[in-house]
Amino acid sequence: MEDSGHLVVSIFLSASSDYRLNQAMERTGLPEKKAAALMKKTDKQRREYYEYHTGKDWGAASSYDVCLNVESMGLSNVCTLLVEAYGKLSAI
């Protein structure tokens, strides 16, 4: 999608709740209950922000150009894939 001469690609990264919770606990050092509460609050804020500004459903595949599962692919692989794909798209 072109936006004022700039390439804009909407991307949604997903993973299971368990995976996300473990990652949140690891990153923040919070115990499970507090990490789960933070994750729930953050998801709510992201949903509200996204839906307000786009009029689309947050998390629905049809709302994005690309949807990737970080849990199954691994974060490093997802990053590599996105960098390579963006490089090819920008060259067009």
Can you lay out the helices and strands and say which pair or pack?
Elements: E1 2-3, E2 6-7, E3 11-14, H1 17-28, H2 32-54, E4 66-69, H3 70-73, H4 75-90
Parallel strand pairs: 3-4
Antiparallel strand pairs: 1-2
Helix pairs in contact: 1-2
Can you give a write-up of this model?
The chain has 92 residues and is α+β, with helices and mostly antiparallel strands. It has one domain: P-loop containing nucleotide triphosphate hydrolases (Rossmann fold), CATH 3.40.50. It has helices at 17-28, 32-54, 70-73, 75-90, and strands at residues 2-3, 6-7, 11-14, 66-69. The strands form 2 sheets. The protein has a two-stranded antiparallel ribbon. It has a two-stranded parallel ribbon with strand order 3-4. α1 crosses α2. It is globular. The protein starts with a strand and ends with a helix. The mean pLDDT is 92.
Number of discrete helical segments:
4
Q: Tell me the major beta sheet.
A: 2 strands, antiparallel
Domains, number: 1
CATH architectural grouping = 3-Layer(aba) Sandwich
- As laid out across the biggest beta sheet, the strand order is 1-2
Determine the structural class based on helices, strands and strand pairing: alpha+beta
What Rg do the Cα atoms give? 15 Å
Q: Please report the first level of CATH classification, the CATH class.
A: Alpha Beta
Question: Which percent range fits the helix content?
Answer: 55-70%
- SSE order in H/E notation? EEEHHEHH
The CATH homologous superfamily is termed: P-loop containing nucleotide triphosphate hydrolases
Mean pLDDT: 92
Q: Poorly predicted ranges (pLDDT <50, ≥5 residues)? A: none
Overall geometric form: globular
Whole-Å distance between the termini? 12 Å
Number of strands: 4
CATH fold description: Rossmann fold
**Strand fraction:** 5-15%
InterPro entries: P-loop_NTPase
Organism: Blautia parvula
Protein name: Cytidylate kinase-like family protein
